[in-house]
Amino acid sequence: MARSIIDPITRIEGHMRVEMEVENGTVREAWVSGGSFRGMEKVVEHRKPEDAAQIVQRICGVCPVSHNHASTIAAEKAYGIKIPNRARIIRNLIEGAQFLHSHILWLYNLAALDYVNPINAVTGNADVKLAYDIAQGGAVPELGVPLPAPLSVSSDLYEVSARLNKFASNGQLSIFSGNWFEAKDVDGGSAYHLTPELDLILTSHYLEALKYQARSSEIAGLLGGKMPHVMTIIPGGTAFVPTAQKLDDLWAMVNEVYDWVEKTLIPDTLALAVAYPEGLTWGGGCGRFGAWGVFERGSLAYNDRYMPAGVLATKGSLEVSDLDESLITEYVGRSWYEGEGTFTAPDFTTNPKFTEYDVNDRYTWCKAPAYDGKALECTSLSRVLVAYARGQQPEYAKKNAWMVEQVDNFLGAIAPVALAVGKTPLEAAVSMLGRTAIRQLETLYIAQLMKDWTAELIATVKGGSLEDIAAMEGMEAADFASTNMTDYFEKPTTDTGAGSGFWEAPRGALYHSEKVSGGKIDGYQIIIPTTWNLAPINQNGEHGPIEQALMDGCPVFDGTEGDLEMPINALRLIHSYDPCVSCAVHVTDVKTGKKFSTVTNPWGVK
Amino acid sequence: MEQETSTVDFGSMLEARGVSRRDFLKFCGALAVAAGLSQAAAPRVAIALEKSVIGAKEGGLFPVLWIEGASCTGCTESFAQIETPDVGKIVLELISLNYSDVLSAGAGYSVELAKKQTIESGSPYIVVYEGGITQGFGSNTLRVAMETGEEILCHAAEHAAAVVALGSCAVNGGWMAAYPNPAQATGVQAILKKHNIGTPVVNIPGCPANPEWLMSVLVQVLMMGGAEALVAGDVPAVVKTLGLDGEGKPQGIFGQTIHDNCERRGHFENGEFVYEFGSKEEELGYCLYPLGCKGPQTKSNCGVTMWNNRRSWCIQAGSPCLGCCEANPNDPGDNWVEVNTPFYERHRDLHIGDWFFQPTVVAGAITGIVALALIIHGFGMKKSGRTDGGAPFEQRRAWDVKNPDKSIGQYEYSIYEDNDPVVLQKAQQEIAKQYEQATEEVAEAAEAAAEIEEGR
Amino acid sequence: MAHLAHYKEAHPLPFVITHWINLVAMICLIITGFLIHFPVSGTMGVARGVHVFFGFVIFINCVVRMIMSLFVKSAPTGGTRKQTADFKSWLPQKDNRHQAGAWIKYYLFLKKDHPLSAKLGVPQKLSYLLIPILIILMFITGLALWTPTAGALAGFTSFFGGAMSVRIIHYFGMFVFIIFMFIHVYLANVEGTEPTKLMFFHKEHGGLVYDPDKHVIVGDDNLQPRNE
């Protein structure tokens, strides 16, 4: 048995540490820790909901739009506002742009370096001509067969190769400092399986991705003023009013991003799956999935959303239930907060209190949320599985048809590997690689939706008929009853109320809840996807989802003493969750004898 | 049994990984060949790699450590949006980014080692520090690799040629420092001051900071002579080359207000305003001033550099400026959230404890109370009969009565000397008469004098 | 008729003029100030122009007024035609001594008879000392807001906690002026409009005669023989 630690985890958002007990080449027990506390809920208290919607974005620079959106929805629920249709479409577009940005950045610029070794393209003397052959469907010499799908080549590979060579000849390692490319598989071989040619092609995609994640952000910038931290999603609608020129720019950009995503992402994912098939056999985690739904349809109903809301509460089952706020609890007994309470949404209450880092006691700034008393995975995988499960329900079948078809294709593709290890394709999808791969289906879906929404926005600005616009949503005109079809902003008519905003960040389910009185926030709560995923041990002694996934057979090379510093599979697993740690750590306010009454624990009210 | 290696011995690290020295030299040779170098260059690369996990300690790229404190990664994200040049070009051809939470390929122990080696290399390097420093619980509200936020910053900054405090949080704590500042956040400059570290600080506020701002500073350093000043440790020269103002901010970026360079300024001067979000006026691109735009008091050149590849910016998209560049490095309380909320009002809220209010409310209330008090007072004056010339004068000052020996008034001359109203009236008339006579005499005398004067 | 005689020696012509200028400038500044803060379509350019113009006017007027007070002579108390250097009536005079409490009591109806006083009573004197300070403060904060990037004012702005603080100080300053004007106008007129007529139109009224050297009322003047 040996301890292996990664601190800091890089290529994620925020500060995260993982500590693992390794036995016989796999992780026996794991503890993950969030390293920073900033105190968002206390800062927004006493300020206006409109201000909070802007300030809470600063929780996370990767998914600011989602926080902005969730907070805005909470304020709209509190004020009883139904946003105008045009505002809904514009907000979907901003959110979609952020998802595209986040997913592209995550895959190529954050996660890919766990699989792709750009230095190998130099040291392995990548044959550029061969690389072109392979990309266009030629056989990979090491495999003897071509890749499942031809790879996109949008860059000049000779130029990329020359660039890498020039970089290597200078000798400074820059972002490759630390040299994790030496990491090993459990069998002692290199953990990086790609041939130099594939490394070269995917490195070219790494560089292209830098451009396209920026182009996606640029869409959010066009509609939101700037990205990160967009400006125009405000309680009541949007501050953005499109002009013909802006619509023109929008149309050009959504097409540009779609074209690249469509030809690049899925083939690359398949290539990685061929090179790293064992990733489908471990890293499953708690097996319960939650999605709060994202991208509004005209009805503004959670279950109608383009990525619908739902909970898969039973491990291994596709039985989907509607989300129930009262089943959400938070436990702080293993985190640096006072007491050992478990609190029920939306009435969480916590005071920070650092003790010391001790995995046998308290070890994180992250709290432990639970759904119906148990850990819940909230990731892109959760959303896709919930959409897939909703698609099996007749009521929602039509709206989720695209996703059902894509998931079926995906399950078909991984079936051989799954059957080889005695799992069903669905079981194999719930794995490190499954979680990593399935996100690309969502990326493609959103890239397509961006085009659809742009068309819809243009139609509505040009005064298209209600029937036409409803049809573009896959809905009936009646679903748009009482919807304001022409404006962009609806003024609040009250200044007091309470509301919760259920939404999704690119990395999972997001929840903002606020109480407003006299136009000022009187209590604010946030549960962020990574809080779910990065949760420490909960009140029942159950590990959090990432901890469980690490303990689900995560292989760590421990062939040589002292070599536990590069547990690359643990890093891959953590990246599959796309964690966003500074999101995950936050605190709620409580003052002696103040307001909160619905607590499930005597320590609740202090 | 923890296995965190603490010594830095590359040879034994190689052996521990089952790599012989010969294998390693072969690897380096391959690297050199691939790089189009002669075989003779191989030992040079080998020596460089053997000594460090950061590769060569010197080369064409300026070493940079990008350290995230209590951050949202928004400034890194923002930097990742730059396209001219793009990030790939920057990290491969311009700087050697030896440590970055977001971009580093390595993780854990080995990136910490890369940071340590950069610091100890003896070569100049720059620290880009993103996020605030939270001092709560002995700075344990920020922990990375078992170090607290303050320790991390101080260790990195002490030997750095300069620290770039990137983003409003790094400048003075940003939103975290807003009331009640639960994590006790502050900025880089304040922490370095607290620990007596004299490394120059370049403050680039903004939430996030615009990538072009950081780029312009890097260009100043890398291409316009800033590097020599940094290497020489010549702080005044650094300040001069980078054009820093009194708060350590580059003047070219933060010397003018948003309002000065706003594309909607013409509408401001014309008095054409947007009074409601999403209105017809917004479509016409009118001025957002009545919606609380903080452009007139926020210094930055957003209107020039714009955002996201110069695609748009806040005001162009229809949002009032929130003033996110407001950050006084010497005062965490002067942070953009505290100073600018409510964002859509013309004034910030003031607060007494947890009671937040608008200046107009208090000023209006006080003015109203004064006006009301005056009205009531007026009725009192009327009732007490003072409105027609006021009450009769006091006969003696109260103090004079108590202190007759030090009396101010010479009451023997006063017409009020006798208290009897009848006598008083008589005396008054008498004195008035005398006075009249006296004044007449004076006037006559003056006339006479004038005549005499004329006669001469 | 218990007030002191209102002689024009109390307010020599130069001060009548500066007072007029103050009145016009202050009203214009307050109106345009509100228009700048709560903008009305089409008025911003004019409002800002007028505001800046009168900002300079009131500041220069204030400086001129203060300089003139050094050599222009005025009556140090009501009810007399004797004159002395005007600045002396801004400073504490023997006539004011120990009278602060009396004034406050009088206005709170705790004292029935009218306190003896100099031209300016104690509270009045304090408020008139405040006004020049306030005008200067408003002028500097106004300049800081008008030219926010001028280097010379950057330190000032930073000292007061940034541009938003300066804006709020300027804003509160306006309300202090408004409150001052309320009280000033009220007190000047509540016991009769004679002081106003004298101040603005140099119209004299008879009344008791006060001797500024003996610090007592020494007579009564109905102005009859000397009415010009």
Biggest protein-protein interface? A-B, 121 and 129 residues
Order of helices and strands of chain C: HHEEHHHHHEE
Number of helices of chain A: 19
Order of adjacent strands in the largest pleated sheet of chain A: 1-2-3
- Strand % of chain C is 5-15%
- Multimerization status: heterotrimer
- The CATH topology of chain C, please? Fumarate Reductase Cytochrome B subunit
Shape by Cα distribution of chain A: globular
Characterise the protein shown here.
- The complex is a heterotrimer of chains A (606), B (456) and C (228).
- Chain A contains 19 helices and 15 strands.
- Chain A has 606 residues and is an alpha+beta fold.
- In chain A, strand 14 and strand 15 form a beta hairpin.
- Chain A is globular, with a radius of gyration of 24 Å.
- Chain B is built from 21 helices and 13 strands.
- In chain B, the strands form five sheets. A five-stranded parallel beta sheet of chain B has the order 2-1-3-7-9, sandwiched between helices.
- Chain C has a single domain, classed as Up-down Bundle (Fumarate Reductase Cytochrome B subunit), CATH 1.20.950.
- Chain C has a two-stranded antiparallel ribbon with strand order 1-2. Chain C has a two-stranded antiparallel sheet with strand order 3-4.
- In chain C, a hairpin with a 4-residue loop joins strand 3 and strand 4.
- The two termini of chain C are 21 Å apart.
- Chains in contact: A-B, B-C.
- Chains B and C meet through helix 15, strand 11, helix 19 and helix 21 of B and helix 2, helix 3, helix 5, helix 6 and strand 3 of C.
SSE arrangement:
The complex is a heterotrimer of chains A (606), B (456) and C (228).
Chain A: E1 2-6, E2 16-23, E3 26-34, H1 40-44, H2 49-55, H3 64-79, H4 85-111, H5 118-123, H6 128-135, E4 139-140, E5 145-146, H7 157-170, H8 196-224, E6 233-234, E7 237-238, H9 244-275, E8 289-291, E9 310-312, E10 328-331, E11 342-344, E12 368-371, H10 380-391, H11 394-397, H12 401-420, H13 425-429, H14 432-461, H15 466-472, E13 497-505, E14 508-517, E15 520-527, H16 529-533, H17 545-550, H18 568-576, H19 581-584
Antiparallel strand pairs in A: 1-2, 2-3, 4-5, 6-7, 8-9, 10-11, 10-12, 13-14, 14-15
Helix pairs in contact in A: 2-3, 3-4, 4-8, 4-14, 6-8, 8-9, 9-14, 10-12, 12-14, 14-18
Chain B: H1 10-16, H2 21-34, H3 42-51, E1 62-68, H4 74-80, H5 87-94, E2 95-100, H6 109-120, E3 126-130, E4 133-134, H7 136-139, E5 143-144, E6 147-148, H8 149-158, E7 162-166, H9 168-172, E8 185-186, H10 188-194, E9 201-204, H11 211-223, H12 226-232, H13 235-241, H14 251-254, H15 265-270, H16 280-283, H17 302-305, E10 327-328, E11 331-335, H18 336-340, E12 350-352, E13 355-357, H19 359-383, H20 398-402, H21 421-455
Parallel strand pairs in B: 1-2, 1-3, 3-7, 7-9
Antiparallel strand pairs in B: 4-8, 5-6, 10-11, 12-13
Helix pairs in contact in B: 2-3, 11-12, 12-13
Chain C: H1 13-37, H2 44-71, E1 73-74, E2 84-85, H3 100-107, H4 122-146, H5 151-159, H6 163-190, H7 194-201, E3 207-211, E4 216-221
Antiparallel strand pairs in C: 1-2, 3-4
